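Blinded run. Sample ID left blank on purpose so nobody reads anything into the name before looking at the predicted structure. Input follows.
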Amino acid sequence: MKHIDTNALLSAIAGFCIILLFTHHGGIGVSPDSVVYTSVARNIYHHHQLEAYNHMPLVDFPVFYPVFLSVSMFVSGLDPVVSGPVLNGLLFGLLIYLCGVAFRKSSSSVTARWALYLSLIISPALLNVYTMLWSETLFIVLSMVLLLLTHKYCQKTSLTVLIGMAVCAGLACITRYAGITLIATGGFIILFRLNTPLRKRIGHTLLFGCLSSAFLLANLLRNAQITGTFTGEREKGITPFFTNMYYYGTVLCDWLSFLKGHYQGATLLAIASLLLSAILLIRHLFRPVSHGAMHNIALAFFFIYTLFIVVSSTISRYEQINNRLLSPAFAPLLLVVIYSLSTLPERFSHIRKTYLLVPLALMFILFQASQVQISKSMYNEYNHYGIPGYTQDSWRHSPVTQHIQNHPNLFKPGTTIYSNAQEAVYFTTGLAAKSLPHTIDTQDVETFAKTNEHYLIRYNEVNDTDLVSMPFITAHKKLTPLYTATDGVIYSCTLQKANNSEHDHP
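Blinded prediction complete.
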């Protein structure tokens, strides 16, 4: 018990309770990605197969998070959607505790540690993630474990610790493909630990890199063997680099809370954060003690991870940079910022402490007050309507969903069902629908256009412009409404006898 940080443990328990509080109305938040994770976990549990609800192999996402959810099913006997609040509460509490342990490696200030705990517990950035059934919940914890192991390795270059680092980084890679940033972070710290002989540094870097990469390589080879692609079909990026920098800057503004919605200087803030991080990392390279310090390791991960997200968003197309994508960098950044601010009085000892402590205290109060205000607003929304996603009241009480549930013989067996929200159909009704084809997938569009008889469940709330449009569908199909409601329509579709050429483009 003497090694347990009581303050960190109490903070972790508070974090656990807050997740339960935020999810008590409608349960854990479920997004389209969550539906895939959950369905794969169910298939592992019931059929020992890595397949999603649509009987397609899991390729777009790495395997470890669904495996983790399936393990929770074996242990608890509960579906991940049911156990999600407790599972995420435990992960959030563990993250807070690990952050407390990490901060003690750099600072002995009790005041600074409590500032960290309070900032984490009521953080809108983290609450937004830990109230959802997302792989980031596990990835962030693995990231913090890796940072702690890296610091331990820097204290004593143990092969056992190095192997532990490799396993942790490897598991992170098969939780999210962005886990390669943890391999890069560990490799950077090991290779540039200048007070260690060069040959040893190179050897340990190669060993760490090979062992950690083996997890990802095995996952990618499995994907290639099954589908011929390493990570599924990926579209080329369409967002310029500096536009992504702007989006990254808006997330930083949101993290500061009191700048939320004020994005005029978002790009400059993003550039400044990366430049300052790079300068500090280079500076610490030539200070062996500070290079292996906890705050520098956290800074290295923040820089590498953030830069990776911005660059990869420019090269490959996926959702716009947002809090979810950048959330693994939040806790390390918070750790670095609070440590740096807490050491200002020591570094500027020639200045009266009052001149530093008063503005720092005011900044902290402003930051926390704005965090409380945003988190309170989130709680009020969740408490009245549920967490945005398929467990929200609007989806749970959807007339279209209830009609399907009340009419199990509505659809002819063996006839394909299409939808503009296939995950919603599966999650709310248990039916395995196909997604309407994306406009860029010409072969899928052609197959859809030639399909004679099928059903279409169209939700008004979903407006995905990447999917084929209604004008295109009506030009190729004869639509017979089977049920019309305020939130959508269920159609029976057959081929038009003659297509209107002006609507040939999807």
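Unblinding after everyone has recorded impressions. The radius of gyration is 25 Å.
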